């Protein structure tokens, strides 16, 4: 199975070699406005990027060791993708930001909330 994955990777790599792309444009376009989730670094970062945001921000309190958090993460990414840039996702690691977790009364993780009511989102 590992060999097969290597063959597929090699095959895909060959398609993007100069031999196949000569004289063509290799631009990739998309209609999705998916924005990657951002990691909140500290309380000041939370104030600037979440509370002061003009867009609704979904806030995910999580930890690297939390299995339910890992299971929830792709679902939150899917919601973010469906909203086409109308919503942002902030990730707060409770191990790195225990003050924020206490301030927002996070009793267990994953813990998700929004900074605003979602109107037309």
From TrEMBL:
InterPro entries: Thioredoxin-like_sf (IPR036249), Thioredoxin_CS (IPR017937), Thioredoxin_domain (IPR013766). PROSITE patterns: THIOREDOXIN_1, THIOREDOXIN_2. GO terms for cellular component: mitochondrion. It comes from the Eukaryota. Residues 25-121 form the Thioredoxin domain. Pfam families: Thioredoxin (PF00085). GO terms for biological process: cell redox homeostasis. Transmembrane segments: none annotated. SUPFAM superfamilies: Thioredoxin-like. This is Thioredoxin 2. It comes from Desmophyllum pertusum. The lineage of its organism: Eukaryota, Metazoa, Cnidaria, Anthozoa, Hexacorallia.
């Amino acid at each position: 199975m590992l060999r097969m994955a290597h063959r597929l990777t090699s095959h895909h790599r060959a398609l993007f070699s100069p031999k196949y792309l000569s004289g063509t444009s290799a631009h990739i376009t998309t209609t999705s406005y998916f924005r990657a989730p951002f990691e909140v670094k500290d309380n000041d970062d939370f104030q600037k990027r979440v509370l002061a945001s003009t867009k609704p921000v979904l806030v995910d309190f999580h930890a690297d060791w939390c299995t339910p958090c890992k299971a929830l993460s792709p679902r939150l990414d899917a919601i973010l993708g469906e909203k086409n840039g109308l919503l942002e996702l902030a990730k707060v690691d409770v191990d790195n930001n225990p003050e924020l977790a206490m301030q927002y009364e996070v009793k267990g993780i994953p813990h998700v909330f929004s900074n605003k009511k979602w109107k037309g989102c």
